């Protein structure tokens, strides 16, 4: 009876083919497959597949006629702001942290496939002298920022760490944290939850079978966050804890400043419900999205959505007009996230990703395609910007705050070597700024560290986040 109604639902969705190997499955395989199928939104499946096929066949919109930079009054900057402003924003941010009003949320649903590993990216060790993983570095930065807020305000604060995982990363992440004693954090203040998985489909809108009794599923992109907040009652947890501001970031940035008090203080002082950290684009065609306005509304425009001549436009001082590179580093108010969850999450734009999706052919033989054969529909975390009532951008220095780990060594950029070099060079700069002189093995002074991730740092100088959050010097009496 269950399979009869299920077959009918699949047929009406145009997906009856997923049961073609049903007679060949044993009882246990059937039970597992039925459980997977039961979790699918079968009513929405037809729309999903048709939308995916249509989107893949449509060229991206060209937005050149409709875009303009974010007005200067809505942009803050580490480089261009005065010391008084920066100190005031930091004071405000540390105050909010000390009052338990700030949480951090990590987007960690993806595996390290492009890195050449099958485990979560956060478990990756880039080869630092300490051997620390991304997860450990981030956990220790949370511990340090709590300590800094407490020492300034005499508080005993908590910055809860919300971690969005996927079906692929939840189990390994939970085990890894447990094995490492939660890196010194209180386990009850680490809240892991799962985002939804959605089926990959062919170019003609058919769900892909990964195996005879398994559909090819993928996380619904980091914009799946907003549905996951609802599914897992995360907003209720934030409310219970008194969290008003949430710093959201991506797992792969080795330089991320967890609960950055300057960024949070800037957003709070501007009354912003939504803020984005940006870095100046390295060159016009750098493949990062740009934070700008489209038809007067703040959003991120992907590099594929504008013509090269628009990307290359320069202002009177020679600077790129569209230079605000998005780095997946955001500050949201909880009330804004509540609005998104209640009113806007179903209006988020769907993005098409063409992928090589392993499948079983009509004879039941497993095939690993050599070219893209499937469509994965993704939502992006920044797609909520247009719903903001008061959006701001905050420009930071790339060498201090952005060095993503995306590719394996051997790739030109964003690999373990560039990530490691970025962090070690930063720590060399911190040490020299604090008055240290770096010496070689013969006692000769070393040159000042370069700011380029392409260059090896002059010394293997690593500073634990438990010693310094962002280069501040501890006074020892």
TrEMBL record:
InterPro entries, sorted: Nucleotide-diphossugar_trans (IPR029044), UDP-sugar_pyrophosphorylase (IPR039741), UDPGP_fam (IPR002618)
Example GO molecular function: UDP-N-acetylglucosamine diphosphorylase activity
Transmembrane segments: none
One Pfam family recorded for the sequence: UDPGP
Superkingdom of this protein's organism: Eukaryota
Keywords of this entry: Nucleotidyltransferase, Transferase
Gene Ontology biological-process annotations: UDP-N-acetylglucosamine biosynthetic process
Family: Belongs to the UDPGP type 1 family.
Protein name (record): UDP-N-acetylglucosamine pyrophosphorylase 1, like 1
Native source organism of the sequence: Oreochromis niloticus (Nile tilapia)
Classification lineage: Eukaryota, Metazoa, Chordata, Craniata, Vertebrata
């Amino acid at each position: 009876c269950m399979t009869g109604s299920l077959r009918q639902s699949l047929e009406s969705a145009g997906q009856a083919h997923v049961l073609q190997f049903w007679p060949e499955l044993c009882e246990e395989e059937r039970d597992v497959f039925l459980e997977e199928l039961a979790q699918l939104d079968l009513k929405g499946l037809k729309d999903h597949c048709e939308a995916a096929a249509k989107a893949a066949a449509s060229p991206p919109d060209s937005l050149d006629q409709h875009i303009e930079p974010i007005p200067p009054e809505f942009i803050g900057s580490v480089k261009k702001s005065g010391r008084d402003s920066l100190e005031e924003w930091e004071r405000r941010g540390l105050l909010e942290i000390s009052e338990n009003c700030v949480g951090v949320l990590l987007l960690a649903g993806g595996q390290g496939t492009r890195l050449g590993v099958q485990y979560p990216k956060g478990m990756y060790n880039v080869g630092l002298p300490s051997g620390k993983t991304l997860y450990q570095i981030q956990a220790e930065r949370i511990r340090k920022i709590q300590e800094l807020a407490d020492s300034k305000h005499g508080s005993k604060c908590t910055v809860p760490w919300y971690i969005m995982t996927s079906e692929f990363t939840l189990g390994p992440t939970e085990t890894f944290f447990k094995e490492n004693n939660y890196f010194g954090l209180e386990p009850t203040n680490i809240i892991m939850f799962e985002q939804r998985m959605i089926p990959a489909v062919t170019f003609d809108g058919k769900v892909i079978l990964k195996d005879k009794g398994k559909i090819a599923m993928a996380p619904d992109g980091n914009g799946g966050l907003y549905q996951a907040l609802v599914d897992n009652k995360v907003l209720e947890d934030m409310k219970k804890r008194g969290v008003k501001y949430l710093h959201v970031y991506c797992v792969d940035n080795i330089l991320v400043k967890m609960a950055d008090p300057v960024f949070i203080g800037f957003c709070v002082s501007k009354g912003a419900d939504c803020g984005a950290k940006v870095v100046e684009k390295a060159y016009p065609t750098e493949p990062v999205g740009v934070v700008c306005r489209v038809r007067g509304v703040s959003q991120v425009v992907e590099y594929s959505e504008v013509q090269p001549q628009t990307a290359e436009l320069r202002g009177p001082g020679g600077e790129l007009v569209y230079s605000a590179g998005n780095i997946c580093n955001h500050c949201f108010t909880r009330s804004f996230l509540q609005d998104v969850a209640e009113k806007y999450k179903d209006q988020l734009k769907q993005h098409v990703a063409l992928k090589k999706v392993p499948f079983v052919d009509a004879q039941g033989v497993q095939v690993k395609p050599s070219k893209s054969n499937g469509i994965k529909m993704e939502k992006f975390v920044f797609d909520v910007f247009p719903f903001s009532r008061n959006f701001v951008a905050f420009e930071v220095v790339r060498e201090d705050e952005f060095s993503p780990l995306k590719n394996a060594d051997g790739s030109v950029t964003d690999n373990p070597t560039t990530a490691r070099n970025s962090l070690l060079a930063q720590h060399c700069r911190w040490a020299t700024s604090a008055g240290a002189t770096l010496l070689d093995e013969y006692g000769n002074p070393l040159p000042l560290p370069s700011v380029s991730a392409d260059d090896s740092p002059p010394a293997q100088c690593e500073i634990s986040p438990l010693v310094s959050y962002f280069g501040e010097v501890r006074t020892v009496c």
